[in-house]
Amino acid sequence: MIQREYPMNNGFSTGEEDSRSNSDQICCLVDDNDRCRRPAGNASYSKRIQKTVAQRRLKLNIDSQARHTYICDYHKTMIQCARTKQRRPKDSEDDSHEAEMDSPEVDWVQLQVNTLKRYKKHYKVPTKPGFNKTQLAEAIQKHFKSLPVNEKEIVTYFIYMVKTNGNKLDQKNGMNSDSV
């Protein structure tokens, strides 16, 4: 394979090589002083992403020897998850930490855009027009976390439905497990 020299601007590519296939490129990031060796995807390490990395104090830097700004899917997901995680309030560290441990995290960015849009439409989540997938996922996550949940009632109802071999769809159709 022939290596071509492309002009660089403070370690960032000028874009001339961006038209080439990036299948032979590796991730441009240095993760905790180790250069990532995973294949680069189509996500770019933009200024906005760099700001997120700095704010979340992730140990990621761009390799000064890299001739492009493409990152691997692993680091893309890591950055997206760091962006969507809520920071714990300083006031009540003990109570909020226990609540975070009990509630499972849902990675909304992993869902398809159509799924996110259906959720938005079903629950009438207010968003600005033109939201991208990440912004839509953040809005839905905020809505989802605001939903009130009566855990005792839900668990009781679930156990009842399991014992009676019923499901919610049967009740909507006017049927129950006894009439079948």
Automatic annotation (TrEMBL):
Cited InterPro entries: His_deAcase_SAP30/SAP30L (IPR024145), SAP30_C_sf (IPR038291), SAP30_Sin3-bd (IPR025718), SAP30_zn-finger (IPR025717)
Domain Histone deacetylase complex subunit SAP30 Sin3 binding: 111-163
One of the protein's GO biological processes: regulation of DNA-templated transcription
UniProt region (Disordered), positions on chain: 1-23, 83-103
GO molecular function: DNA binding; transcription coregulator activity; zinc ion binding
GO CC field: histone deacetylase complex
Compartment(s) where it occurs, according to its Swiss-Prot or TrEMBL record: Nucleus
A Pfam family of this chain: zf-SAP30
UniProt protein name: Histone deacetylase complex subunit SAP30 homolog
Organism in which the protein naturally occurs: Euphydryas editha
